Amino acid sequence: LRLLLVRHGETEWNRASRFQGQIDIPLNENGRQQGEKAAEFLKEVPIDFAVSSPMQRPKETAEIILQPHSNVPLELQDALKEISHGLWEGKLEAEINEEYADLLLRWKEAPETVQMPEGENLQQVWERAVACWDEMVKSAADPSTELKTGLVVAHDAINKLILCYILGLGSESFWGIKQGNGAVSVIDYPKGGDKLPILQAMNITTHLSGGVLDQTAAGAL
Predict the structure, then answer these.
(1) Of 27, 71, 182, 207, which sits 20 to 30 A from 213 (CA to CA)?
(2) Distance separating alpha carbons of residues 58 and 51, to the nearest angstrom
(3) Is-catalytic flag, 82?
C-alpha cells in the first residue's frame, strides 16, 4: 500500500495568517493553481482510491488532482476535518494575542497542552485522525495483492499529527513537521497494514516552486 498525503491548496485566510479551523473557506486562485500543479505532478501515478476531508479547501484540491483519474471516486471522511480552533477561528494571530497571549504562546511552545477555547485539543484531533488513517490502511493494505495507491487530502494539523504518528512521535512534535499548501508526502506499507510504515518523502513542494525549499504560505491553520 502507498498513500499520498496532500495538504489542501492555499486560501485567502492562509495568506493573511487568519485562523480557519473548521470555518469552511474555499481555495483562492493560487490554491487552485497549486491543486493543478499537484495534479500534473501525480497524473502518471496510478491512483486506486481517494479520501478527503469534506471541507471545501481539501475537497476541491482532491477533485482537481483526480481530474486525470476520472474513474476514481472521492470518499469524504468527517474525521479528517481540520482542528476546531473554537473562539480563535476567523481571527488574526495579532487579535488572538490581545485576548489569549499566554495561551497563544503555549500553543507555539507546547501545543499538546493547549485546549482551544470552545474548540479541540491536539489529543482529540489525534484520536479521530489516526483512527481514520488506521481504518484506511487496514481496509486497503493486502500484501497478497498488487500495490495499491491511495490519495488522502486533508489539512495542516491533521497531516502533521498523522505524520507524527507514522514517525513514532507524539503531538509534542507538532511544530517539528512542515506541511505546505499543495505539498505531497508519500507513506508506504510494503509488508501490509499491520507492519511498520516507511515515510518515503515528506512535504514535497518542488512541483509548486521548482526548488527544493517550501515557499508556500506560512499562515495559520
Answers:
(1) 27
(2) 10
(3) yes
Domain ranges, residue 140: 2-209
What angle is formed at CA 37 by the lines to CA 35 and CA 39, rounded to 5 degrees?
Answer: 70
Asked if residues 209 and 173 have their Cβ atoms less than 8 Å apart, the reply is: no
Radius of gyration (C-alpha) of the chain in whole angstroms: 17
The pairing of beta strand 2-7 with beta strand 184-188: antiparallel
pTM to 2 decimals?
A: 0.95
Q: Look up the CATH number of the domain holding residue 150.
A: 3.40.50.1240
Q: How far apart are CA 220 and CA 94, in angstroms?
A: 11
In percent, the amount of the chain with pLDDT more than 90 equals 87
Catalytic residue of the set 10, 69, 75, 82: 82
Any idea which of 50-59, 80-89, 184-193 has the lowest mean pLDDT?
Answer: 184-193
Residue-wise pLDDT tens digits, 118-175: 999 999 999 999 999 999 999 887 766 677 999 999 999 999 999 999 999 999 999 9
Is 97 within a domain?
Answer: yes
